[in-house]
Amino acid sequence: MPLVETKNNTVTQTNQEPTIPEKPFRIPAVDISEYENEYRIEADMPGIKEENIDIQFHHGELQIRGFTDVPDEKAQKRIDRYRQFEPADYYRAFRIGESVNAAEISAQYVDGILTVHLPKMEMLKPRKIEIARK
Amino acid sequence: MYSELVYPYPFSRELFRRLNQFLSMPSLNETEGLFGSLSSGELATNIWEDEDAFYVEMEVPGTKPEEIDLSIIGTELQIKITRPHENKSKNVHYLRRERTFGNTVRTITLPMDSAPKELDASIESGVLCIRLRKPKEAKVQKITVSPK
Predict the structure, then answer these.
(1) Confidence of residue B13 (pLDDT cuts 50, 70, 90)
(2) CB distance from A51 to chain B under 8 Å?
(3) CA distances from A16 to A2, A57, A93, A96, B95 (A)
């Protein structure tokens, strides 16, 4: 079964299996909300570049990950005084029900927040039924 | 609708938090280590220095520059952040809420004897970075030993 991958707001097909990170990772805090036409996942993933975000949807499982850059020469010379966050990659996975239209999943990354839009299947969207006149 | 996968580690977040609390240094026990974010809702901060300056990095996802108020009081740096709650629309139903909003004030005592004169701050991808140039006396002074 092909894998649907969303990257840079576009959806492409790939046959690559998603892998689980081997290194320690950070679990981003998320808000999951339901709107009339879609579900939305908002994840706090500050400090990464848009091109280093990878979102994959495979067999009903959504994986989001963000990769941090390798520390540059300047960062290696620094002396830490207080440390509350590490430059580790972000990873989190969600199991998504069948009510989501996988082909239409899209994402944005603005000000350190990743927003994934999961549109509902057409049949689940609310619709108004007009009474036909005879 | 959604169920979260917690593998590859077959432990819950809560267990990780407790384990980290138990194992970590008292000064850093607010963090969940590498496996999670801060539990108290506090904004994660790193402070580091190099030869020329002190740097304060704070994770402020979704915060606009106009929502940040920085002030120097003596040798203390005060960071005030006003983050309004998003999405107040009635058409939204939350299935999970973990992200924090609201106002935050954080005061950091700078390891300097006098107030820093030069300061610049920028925000990129939700990380606030403040650079405080060291006064001359705080910089590393090289002393050469001369033979008699």
Answers:
(1) low
(2) no
(3) 8, 11, 17, 19, 30
Could you list the residue range(s) of the whole structural domain that residue B98 is in? 41-134
pTM of this structure:
0.72
Task: Locate A125 and state its tokens.
Answer: 């969207």
CATH number of A3-122: 2.60.40.790
Contacts of A32 in chain B (CB under 8 A): 2, 94-96
Q: Are B133 and B53 in contact (CB under 8 A)?
A: yes
Note whether B31 and B46 are same-domain residues.
Answer: no
Backbone angles phi, psi at B30, to 5 degrees: -75, -20
Residues B33 and B46 occupy one common structural domain:
no
Name residue B121's beta-bridge partners. Answer: B130
What's the complex ipTM?
Answer: 0.74
Does B140 map to a domain? no
Q: Is A19 on the interface with B (CB under 8 A)?
A: no
Task: Kindly report the CATH number assigned to the domain that includes residue B82.
Answer: 2.60.40.790
